[in-house]
Design a protein that fits this description.
alpha+beta; 3-stranded antiparallel β-sheet; 4 helices
Length: about 160
Amino acid sequence: MLLRCIFVSIAGLLCACAGAPSPDRVQIQGTPPDNTLTPRLPRSDQGLPPDWFLGDWRVGASGCMLHLGRGDAEGASGPVETRDCAPPWSGASRWRRPADDQSLFDILTPEGALLWRAGAIQPTAIAGVNGEGRLVRLYWAQEGTHGGWVRPGGEE
């Protein structure tokens, strides 16, 4: 009798597992394993122009950064909204090295007001400067810390 109960329980469990996936399983599908990026977002949903190129970084309407690159665990390409939505970066336009300390960077608004003073940024990490609205990527020299983002324009 005990053996029969065990067999019926195992058979029932196998039948339950063979059914449709649970809502939890569907919900996490396509989520990057490290959870640093959200799943990729359609361009139309973000109001993005069609001239995106792999590796571009831009500010979305929410002030968060959008990256065109690996958008999910499968490596699909598309605009991806990052988790870095810190207000100091949302209105950034230019950067400069302050005269009193050349190891720092000042992040400025279009009007030249100081938004943020960032320390220990590698000058060699600045890339992608052009006149087409692309963003320049700045990141901290310390391993494992987050970076900041400014629009092209270069030093004053």
